[in-house]
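Look over both lines:
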Amino acid sequence: ERIPELNVVIRTAGAQQFGDLFGMEETVFEPDRFTQYETYDEALQAFETEPSVRVLFESGAGSEQAGAPIPLFEASYEQWPTDTARTIEWFVGQEGQLLDASPEDAGADAWTFDANAGIEDFFGPRGYQLLVPIWDIDWTRFDPGHITAYQTAPFTKSMVIAGPGIAELWVKSPVDDLSVQVTLSEVRPDGMEYLVQTGWLRLGHRAAEDGENLRLRRTYSEEDFENVPIDTWVPVKVAIPSVAHPIREGSSLRMLVSTPGRDHGTWEFEAPAYETPPVFSLGYGGARPSGLTMAVLPVVEIPEEYPPCPSLRGQPCRAYEAIVNSPAQ
């Protein structure tokens, strides 16, 4: 029952030492927030009247030193996910498009299982190290044919895309056990691509109940596990974990579907030991409307300037490369 106040020694000497650990030339701690109150009860009341959620956008781009843990902008909400957000949908179409409506004609693209994806992460065998810059990473790419990609048209106005979200996919498989990864990225008009978020699902756990605010409820229990019917179109919902990312006017949102792996910092994934790499199909349009549902946050003032690449903490970037999808047979 004390008013929080950072020790003056830690605020001065500690800030520099903390910055040195992360290779930053200059570091400061945020100012104490409640020291203007005379009593603990007054400070507690002020704290309890504040919004419960503080979202820090584009951490790493808020100062002249790229990568410093300072956000470019922020917003506050009473809860998360916020009930003031609206949902937005895109649908998979031909030629790698994410469209505002599902095509009338059905189609399908294919991706081949990537046996190496599960053991590829950003930091490689050395793993994450505190003294290594957060952008000293290797965001590896899937070979052609081992991934499908779908992209919106450039946004005509800036907005903040938020999760949790849901990727609803129609999948056909020649084997009864497979996992799917859905990665979202931002493609900027300057030719750079920034990672936004990744979700994944072992399709035997596809049974789910819809919850509030685009949340899915799954037990992940052995009793509820059900192998995938072979060579049969199956609808699955892949949960996109919570995220809040600004997409500026002129940028596009990209959805990548693949074998799990490559798009994580230190996580690795086990995969079934297939005799030959299976080829999976993703259906779209007609009776199989695959798509993506996210939320759009209420009005947030987004700075016009793009963060440098690299700079964002936990969000790697790389030069954008187009992906041509392989038609399913």
